Amino acid sequence: MKVLILGSGGREHALAWKLSRSSKVDSIIVCPGNPGMEITPKVSTDNLSWKEKDNFIKRIEQLNPDYVVIGPEDPLANGVADWLREKKIPVVGPSAAAAKLESSKIFAKNFMQKYDIPTASFKTVGSVEEGYTYLESLPMEKGIVVKADALAGGKGVVVTDKLDLAKSAVYDFLDNKDCSISTKEILFEEMLRGKELSAFALCDGTNYVTLGYACDYKRVFDNDLGPNTGGMGGYQPQGWPSESVKRKIDEVFRKTLLGMEKEGNTFNGFLFVGLMIENEEINVIEYNVRMGDPETQILMPTLNIDLHDYLKKVANHSLNESIDISSKQKSCVHIVLTSGGYPSIDKTPLNTNNPISYPVEYNDPTDGSIHLFFAGVNRNNKNELVNSGGRVMGVSAVGSTTEEAKELAYSQIKNFNFKGMHYRQDIARI
Ligand SMILES: Nc1ncnc2c1ncn2[C@@H]1O[C@H](COP(=O)(O)OP(=O)(O)O)[C@@H](O)[C@H]1O
Ligand SMILES: [Mg+2]
Q1: Which residues of the chain have pLDDT under 50?
Q2: How far apart are CA 195 and CA 300, in angstroms?
Q3: Ligand 1 atom with minimal separation from the 286 CA
Q4: What dotted CATH number matches 331-413?
């Protein structure tokens, strides 16, 4: 069996590593991947880009994988899963039409409203004037959420109780040519309160397997200070949420798949639901149509199954039943190591090209409690692994409790080093 994975980060490394553990998988090619993931047995990389469609399809046909797993949202929103299905290449990943659950927040809100999926109340507007008028009619002390209707890499949402900040978000998203985000419509949402949780399922259109739950940390510094990032780490909660909340989350997965099928947009692939939970009530904040990064690195190490069995069935639309395969016995804590300067909001260059030192025994962990997943790394002319991107690598530690996993992660991270390295000290300090 040969599996091809699209993407280059820690998420794709974690998927490749989990697949490498299957006795049925002979090789895993990650496109474009990164040189750090090649340390994992059976894993190679190929500098293939989906952005040149004809060349991409031709090369995939040559490589002839048994199935393809699409990691990030961009290729999904651009229809790469559709191209592969047209060529009869089995793929794990939704069509561009189904990927709108993530690529259009307004599509997702209308969908949730139509199929009775709990979510914050909302309003859409198409002009700055209309946006300002609406904001001025609100009691701002309750807060408001302003969202752009586009894939914005975590930069398209403003949560505030300040009228001027809400107004500048409206202007930036709709009219400001200097803003990196541009959208024709924006979404206002009621501000929810509570604790956030992400839930993950692998879906074949009709059935799904529950992969588990995770809490993540988005801000760059401890105590949730500093700018937003792609994710600084996270953990698998234990004893929370309650069984009754898990049943409500199950209902969300079930209704989502049924609704998508009814709309003629059958959903195949990973479904990631962002939730706000307060007093056992759940509300869906957003859908993502792929695994999370770093949530994949949190969930894969404790999954006690052969991932290949499930991915193969999903790629061939043959799960046949919905089951929960999430880990009940173990917890995992994941800490992301970033380059100095990340997330570089003022465009100052990152401190890169620094050799990374770490205990090499973790390249192929024998006791399975520490796993390294590489992201923004490269090799220098001495063939040393150096940091080349914002999020460089992550350390996942597994324990029988979250506390134990956290202690292990932080005790080992002292042995990792590169110039400018930064990580949060408070991951899983619940
Ligand atoms: N209605 C809401 N009420 C309170 N907080 C919200 C709401 N919507 C979003 N948020 C906060 O903003 C974050 C980002 O919003 P989300 O819709 O997940 O966008 P994205 O992940 O695409 O940037 C959420 O993780 C949550 O912390
Ligand atoms: Mg989100």
Answers
A1: none
A2: 23
A3: 17
A4: 3.90.600.10
